[in-house]
Amino acid sequence: MAKWERRDVVVRTTATGHELTAPVFTAQGRQERPIAYVQANVHGGELQGNAAILGLFDLLESAPLRGTIVLVPRVNPISANQQVGDYVAGVYDLLTGVNFNRGYLYLTGPSRSASAACYVDVDSFAAAHLSAPIGEIRSGFREALKAALAAIEEEAAAWGADSRLDFALSIQKMAVDADLVLDLHTGDRAPRYLYAPEGAVAAARAFGLPFVLEVPARFGGALDEASFVPWQDLSDAFRRLGRDDVPRLVDGFTVELGSMNEFSLEAGREDARRIASALRYYGVLDGEPDAPLGPITACSAADYRSLHAPVGGLVDLAVRPGTRVKAGDVVARLADPSRCRSLPPRAGDAVFEVRAPEDGVALLFHAFSSVPKGARLFSMMTKTRPL
Ligand SMILES: [Zn+2]
User: Fold this and answer.
1) Fewer beta carbons under 10 A from the terminal one: N or C of the chain?
2) How far is the CA of 100 from the centre of ligand 1 (A)?
3) What is the Å distance from ligand 1's center to 102 Cα?
4) Residue 260 alpha carbon to ligand 1 centre in Å
5) What integer pLDDT is reported at residue 1 of this predicted model?
6) CATH of the domain at 159
7) Ligand 1 centroid vs 222 CA: distance in angstroms?
8) Does residue 14 fall inside a structural domain?
9) What pTM value is reported for the model?
10) Last residue of a domain, which of 294, 326, 341?
């Protein structure tokens, strides 16, 4: 039987003195490691990850837990409560204007605000551990990353940590311990898909999601990158010194569970089964991962391209999100009645057809059906291949 604990972590304190907290559920199995850290709903309108975590609660009652799993549903009460009428304006922090998933700290390179003392120099670390066994490298580097977080916090103490730093630290202090980090999001209007570190093919297959975007090891401020890029940097540093048996020892994924605002407990049980398959791949649960249910289409995140609306209008989807299209196929129609200049007015004059610029998969559409010119209308996987 797994041993469970619950605590609540403060992610913001409001002007009225209220602490906004997220519940953190930890289950430890037979041994401490590997540790998986799973959070959901950092973007307040992206709800399905909470259903997946509820599914994991039930699944873990009977699943053989070998390592430790940390589950943080509703990780961002700030964002979840940025509610305007029915709508949750959840991607950007209304206090800072910053995307909640772009403010994390790079622990092996220069980040905003932090001095050189606040990140780990991978080349010196690798040189100092050139003949160390893997286990020692893993634990030593993790301690170094934790020390970097502590140094950032300490450096900020004198003048105060800004809200964005406060938020990043509260999450990264939990995630830095993990061997596997899963950040559960949703698309706007999208099927299920996965952002996976480049090269993590077997792991990506273990999730079994139909679409995979492969993320290069370059830091852009998201949690998956903040989790795996430092470990890729370390692996690269060892390779530069002629040692090539140090793989990337931590992986981070962004798991996109359908469309924003959708929430289904039943679908959450299936999402939990897919996540459990990945947890078996990483040895957090005992057993073998499931085989993928169907074909998986992949492309580099660099070949995941957004089409910006060439005109404004009301969006009529010509294909469902996740549909394979050829260059020139109509993907969406933008209707604007003000384009009807001749009388009697004809509906056809209002409609502008938007076609796919390249072959690929029309994966994600704008969440809402009224867009200005220049808004991201849809995003396409291009240069796709089977995974
Ligand atoms: Zn998101």
Assistant:
1) N
2) 9
3) 10
4) 8
5) 72
6) 3.40.630.10
7) 10
8) yes
9) 0.97
10) 294
84, two tokens: 């305007």
Distance from residue 104's CA to the centre of ligand 1 (Å): 14
Report how far ligand 1's centroid is from the alpha carbon of 159 (Å): 31
Q: What is the pLDDT of residue 113?
A: 56
Q: Does some domain include residue 299?
A: no
CB 80 within 8 Å of CB 90 = yes
Query: Which pLDDT score, from 0 to 100, does residue 112 have?
Result: 66
> How remote is the CA of residue 345 from the centroid of ligand 1, in Å?
41
Pair 290, 355 in one domain = no
pLDDT at 7: 98
Question: What is the residue range of 310's domain?
Answer: 305-386
Same domain, 277 and 348: no
264 Cα to the center of ligand 1, angstroms? 17
Using only C-alpha atoms, the chain has a radius of gyration, in whole angstroms, of 22
Residue 68 Cα, ligand 1 centroid: separation in angstroms? 25
* pLDDT value of residue 111: 73
Residue 316 lies in a domain: yes
Q: What is the pLDDT of residue 110?
A: 82
CA of 62 to the centre of ligand 1 (A): 30
**How many domains does the chain fold into?**
2
What are the 10-residue block averages of pLDDT along the chain, 387 residues in total? 93 96 98 98 98 98 96 98 95 95 94 73 97 98 96 91 94 98 98 97 97 95 97 98 97 98 98 98 98 94 98 98 98 98 97 98 97 98 97
Q: What is the CATH number of the domain that holds 318?
A: 2.40.50.100
In whole angstroms, give the CA distance from residue 194 to residue 208.
Answer: 9
For residue 246, how far is its CA from the centre of ligand 1 (angstroms)? 32
Cα–Cα distances in angstroms (integers) from residue 293 to residues 209, 253, 283, 287, in the given order:
8, 20, 21, 18
One-letter identity of residue 153:
E
Residue ranges with CB less than 5 Å from ion ligand 1: 43, 46, 185
Tell me which of 241, 273, 294 is where a domain ends.
294
List the beta strands (DSSP E) in the chain: 3-13, 19-28, 35-40, 68-72, 83-84, 87-88, 180-187, 192-197, 211-215, 251-259, 297-300, 304-308, 313-317, 323-325, 330-335, 351-355, 360-365, 370-371, 376-381, 385-386
45 CA → ligand 1 middle, Å: 8
